[in-house]
Amino acid sequence: MAQWIVDYLPTWDMIRFSGIAAYLLLFTGVFLGIAQGMPMAKGEPRSVMSEWHTRTIWLAFGLGTFHALTLIIDQYSPFTWSELLIPFTASVHPIGSGLGTLAVYGLLIVLLSGDLRRKLGHQCWFMFNLLSYPVFAGLLVHGMVTGSDSAHVLMRLMYVFTGVSILGITVLRGLLLERKGPEITIGPKRTESEPIRDRKWAETYGLAVPLGQEQLK
Predict the structure, then answer these.
(1) Of 21 and 3, which is predicted with more confidence?
(2) 34: closest CA among 186, 203, 217?
(3) pTM score, two decimals?
């Protein structure tokens, strides 16, 4: 009975749909994570962006895991467990498939580090959080290389649009934060502490701090 169900499942459609949906959710989560760190993002808008940033990242991880597991039961080009879990060992598109495997592992590290931020410390969490950028880039290449419909003009436009959007908002955020200029204080000049410097680096180049772990401005 179980084999009959597997034989008649539209596994290829499930693989493509879940893969594209996971990529778009990751793009949305990363974009919101960068956007909520903009100087003008304060109060309720920042709270909403932070909430949806976390939700979309977790949904992307869930759909990405489903996408990978469906490859095991695919009737057209099934993967073995070793091909699925060990990067660059797949018989079909080893580079692209390997990047997808590494991206899922990286995304899991990012999510777990966010939950363990207080135990890890800010500097350690910040380094793990930067993995979001290579994770996104890896999934972008993975989709372009392994996707059966990647040659379609709409799919190419999607990959170009999402890639340029992440690059553009990252550069824009850095420029806006640099234009804020130095703070003017009255009284003796105080030496900037190391945690504050780390925080500024995180605000400029890292993704935003998860809601509830940082006091909203």
Answers:
(1) 21
(2) 203
(3) 0.78
